Backbone:
């Protein structure tokens, strides 16, 4: 039992020394703007930049479509699964999607005819 306690004490001294050396090396590193964010025990630390890249200018927020009406089901009652979309809302949605795809193409070399 005595040998086990002594070995555990020596292991904790070695681990504490290794941690102190690691902290010293971390404080001596050059300032690159990159730091590490601690994670829970089984996961490695995640890199984090001090100056995140600027956000895209004027991102258009997604707007919910509220101008829908339920389509008629076979029994004549309003359907719970199918909805009818007014033409102006559909055209506006298609125009916004096409504008976004023109600005940010999914596959830059692919031309669909």
Residues:
């Amino acid at each position: 039992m005595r040998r086990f306690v002594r070995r555990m004490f020596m292991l904790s001294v070695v681990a504490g020394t290794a941690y102190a050396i690691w902290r010293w090396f971390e404080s001596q590193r050059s300032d690159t703007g990159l730091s590490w964010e601690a994670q829970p025990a089984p996961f490695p630390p995640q890199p984090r930049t001090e100056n995140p890249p600027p956000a895209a200018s004027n991102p258009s927020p997604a707007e919910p479509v509220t101008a829908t009406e339920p389509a008629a089901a076979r029994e004549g009652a309003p359907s719970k699964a199918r909805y009818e979309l007014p033409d102006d809302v559909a055209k506006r949605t298609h125009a916004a999607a096409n504008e976004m795809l023109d600005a940010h193409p999914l596959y830059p070399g692919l031309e669909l005819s």
